[in-house]
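User: Fold both of these, please.

Assistant: Here is the first one.
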Amino acid sequence: MHTHAPLLAMALACLAIACSENAALPPREAHAPPFEFKLYLDQGGQVIPGTDVLIVRRPEHLEHVYELSLKENKEKPGHAQAWTIFSNLEGQFRGAGSYVAQQVYSLRCTAVELPDCVPKWSFIEELLGPVEGPGSRRLRQALADSFKETARREGMKSTLVMAVVNVLLTEGMMTSTLGKAATAESSAAAAEHRAVVEAPAVQAQRWAAGEGRAAAVGAEQLAVQSGSLGLAVEVSAMEARLVEAEAQEIGARQTGGVEKLAGQRPSLENPLPGGEADEALWRDYVSYWDQRYAELNNPAGPAEGVKPPLTWPGYQAFRTRFKKAMEFQVKVSALLRGEVKLPQGERKVLRGMKQPRTDANVGLNHEGSTSVTYADDLAVDEATLKSSEPRVESVSTKQRDFMKMSEDDARRQVTTDAEEALAKYGGEVEVRRRGHPLFERRVTVSRVHLVYDEALVPKGSAFRERMLNAAKRKGVELHFHHAP
């Protein structure tokens, strides 16, 4: 952007270009001086240079100007001046949304993920602060709408666009994760090796049957929020995990009778307690409920074991636990990436590998199966790639609360988790991730790891020793990871 651009426009450009920590923004004033138009407009009625940033740092002034600028107040004194100020702000936020989308989807950014190809959404949080009043929300809306319009025009995947917009409008900024997801998505469109691979016939059959569609609601947004997820393959992994977790959820569900169920349909306009405070989750719940109702209305649904929808409190609890589990997985993945850089003797998980490589959410296919399972992490010793039996290890992360379990209960839970990890990520598998050095090779997983959150396991050495032995008896190596 040019140096003669308004100060706010220059500041908003920091979303899309690598800015130094230059721009110390003026302090966000909770108690601004008495409002006067002359603080922001010159004698000719034009916005004074530099005051565009100042007013967004003064919430009381921003909301006053927005309220006065509305059409309903066009007869009130000061309406025209207020409209001049706010329309100037809104135009700059719209320009920023379009500019960011263009930068993220530019040819240079789809070719390689450069530092300035990752939007710094956290800057908006710093600039505007938490969503407070309708004026602040209107500016966020302008940014989100413009980003959405431009991103779709540029060809960005609709589900990703909506995930970005939902987070922008309802949960504040999420550091640079959204930008990474958008950049990754555009790269995936330009380079097939970043896309999920699934047999076309199987995929078509799965979607035609509507399998998992209700339970998978929110997968895109959860993938974005989890910190390192966002590629198409990772969204698919998130969908698969949501479907499985929802099917196993033991929380309260509504009545299974379709006729009675119809009278309990939730609506976006009338959120239940807690829905207004978490708009994004309430929208997910309404979508989940509607799709689950459609599945139950399908004659094949009940016959295939489709369960009634969770109640709203049950869905809140389910999604909270699920999100925490995904956050734990991201931390374990970061641990493994850190181990790659350590000498062999200092590693706790990737021992014995000369050139370890780890990838999260790698699709695996077992012979005779039509589905793809996603290993939380797959480790490969690149030094063995040319051999007939490359060294491959898989990692399964679980966030189980063992604090109130007896030793026998804990042993049984470990045994169950170990058996599940072996069935999903052990034995002979075909790697289904394009771009992976083992893509389409059938390999044998030499070791399966199971990782628990250490904070949820009693500290007693005897208790943990029994857990370790239970996993060992199943041929699985157990680890306790401290995840701050």
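And the second sequence with its predicted structure:
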Amino acid sequence: MEVFGDLNSGNCLKVKYTADHLGLSYRWHELDIMAGESRTDVFLAMSPFGQVPVVRFDDGRALGQSGAIIRFLARGSVLLPDDAFTQAEIDQWMFWEQNFHEPNVAGARFHVVYRGEPVETRDPDKVERGEAALDFMEGALKTRDFFVGAALTIADIALLGYTRLAPQGGFQVDGRKAITRWIARCEDVLGLPALH
């Protein structure tokens, strides 16, 4: 399969983390989204969303949206247990991530990392909502090692993408001890080097 993405994007890293952990073979195509490479006619013919990541499979079919991709890749693996209710709990966290975490934490980071703007000029509403999302995660992780069950699932991978990169957007993670421990656990399972 081929993965079209941006290694600076938490959404794209979710796909990389999942594929690498599962030992899947793929070819990575790095796109410069700021140069419009996800908006070309060729790319839009493959994925009308005009966003990365996109995976194109050997049969020519393409799939976009990080949550859909990692859920598809993880089927039948330890990252997505077979139990229907467990899968629903995983989906619950993944939908929450896309609605409350990603728009704010990643949105603020985009302003700083992609646009090169000072941290002080971030949208205060995004900052407030991003801090609230991180606080919510901190509370949830005080009573568990991973978000669903006793082992890492795609719920953790979905939340790890931008939580791990949150300091680049001006968010403090170090003071949130439960999140810090969870990030270290995820890095250990996934074989990722610590970012700091």
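Residues 84-190 form a domain with the Glutathione S-transferase Yfyf (Class Pi); Chain A, domain 2 fold (CATH 1.20.1050.10).
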